[in-house]
Amino acid sequence: MQEYTDYRPNVAAIILSSDYDQTGQFVIARRTGMRRGWQFPQGGIDAGETPREALLRELLEEIGTNDVEILGEYPEWIQYDFPNVKTTKVYPYKGQRQRYFLVRLRPTATLDLYTYETPEFEEYKRVTSDELFKRISYFKRPSYRRVIKYFREKGQL
Fold it and tell me: CB atoms < 10 A from the CB of 41, how many?
């Protein structure tokens, strides 16, 4: 298997609201300190973790809940480069290799962006797919479109 040392192994969650069937709404969050930094929760896969384990851990860390139903998993890794902008984080990577999951919040789920001392997100919002692509960071749009199209074609959206 080819080694991808330039790309951080990562998971991402396409989050559906608990009432998605009625509203068609996704749940996105805005990164702390980034006016236009809207995205789905995502994060690195720790050593020894499966992508599914990393997904549940990252959801708990970033939005304060992993009270979700996993509806699907995109069958391939999607790779992207970090944008060429200055950032407060210093990554030893060119970008990320992501494994995407489709999840639906359970009706009992409660989001809490302040479960950690330094929250990654400062706001979350329920949005339709049209609004989603107006708000999401530009460099994430191609991946999100690809994954959402796949889940639609599979009848999971």
Answer: 23
User: Can you tell me which residue has the tokens 């479960």?
Assistant: 115
pLDDT at residue 29 greater than cutoff 80: yes
As given in the structure block, the two tokens for residue 15 are: 């989050």
Report the 10 Å Cβ neighbour count for 137.
15
Q: Is the pTM of this model over 0.85?
A: yes
Q: Where are the domains of the chain?
A: 7-153
Q: What is the greatest pairwise CA distance in the chain?
A: 43
**Could you tell me where the beta strands, DSSP code E, fall in 4-155?**
7-16, 26-31, 38-39, 42-44, 68-73, 78-81, 95-105, 121-127
- On whether the CB atoms of residues 70 and 104 are closer than 8 A, the answer is no
What pLDDT digit, counting tens, does each position of 47-100 carry? 999 999 999 999 999 999 999 999 999 999 999 887 775 554 556 778 889 999
Determine the residue type at 100: Y
Tell which CATH architecture fits domain 7-153: Alpha-Beta Complex (3.90)
